[in-house]
Amino acid sequence: MPYQQNLLDLFGGGHMHMHGTQLYQLLPSVAELRGLISIELGDDALRPGDPVPIENLAFIQDEVTGEIPLYLHCTRDQFVKGLKRKTLRGGIHYCVRGFESVAEANSLVARARDYAPRT
C-alpha cells in the first residue's frame, strides 16, 4: 500500500479499481488510503466461496468502506434481483452489463429512479 499511498499523495487523490481473487483481502487496506475519492469493485475472478460484491454490499459499506463512494460492476440479472428484493444500497454507482438493447437498459433506469431500499 505504500506505493498506492504515494501515488494518491502525488496526485492529490484518486480512484482505485479492484477485482480478482484478493478483493476481500485487500479492500480493508485500500479503504484506509488517504485521498481516496472512490473505489471500483469488479465481480470477476473471485475466490470460490467469496460472495459477489452486489450480494455483500451491507458488509462492504458498513464494515469496510464506510462513506467512500463505490462503483460496482454487476450483471443485469443481479441488479434486477436487487431491485425486486429492495437490497440495493445507496451511494453506489452501479455498472450494469448484459442488456440486449438500449431500450431495455433505459427501461431499467426508469425503474431504478423510483427505487427505495427496504428500511
Count of individual beta strands: 4
Could you tell me the mean pLDDT? 93
Q: Which spans have pLDDT < 50 for at least 5 consecutive residues?
A: none
Helical proportion? Answer: 40-55%
- What is the number of domains? 1
Give the termini separation. 36 Å
Largest sheet entry: 4 strands, parallel
One letter per element, helices H and strands E, the order comes to: HEHEHEHEH
**Pairing-aware structural class of the strands and helices?**
alpha/beta
What is the CA-atom radius of gyration, in angstroms?
Answer: 15 Å
Kindly estimate the percentage of residues that lie in beta strands according to DSSP: 15-25%
Shape: globular
List the helices and strands and how they pair.
Layout: H1 2-11, E1 14-18, H2 23-31, E2 36-41, H3 57-65, E3 70-75, H4 76-85, E4 92-97, H5 102-113
Parallel strand pairs: 1-2, 2-3, 3-4
Short description:
The chain is α/β, with parallel strands linked by helices.
What does this structure look like?
This protein has one domain (about 1-115). The chain is about 40% helix and about 20% strand. The chain is built from five helices and four strands. It has a four-stranded parallel beta sheet with strand order 1-2-3-4. Helix 4 links the parallel strand 3 (about 70-75) and strand 4. The longest helix is centred in the C-terminal third of the chain and has 12 residues, at about 100-115. It starts with a helix and ends in a 6-residue tail after the last helix.
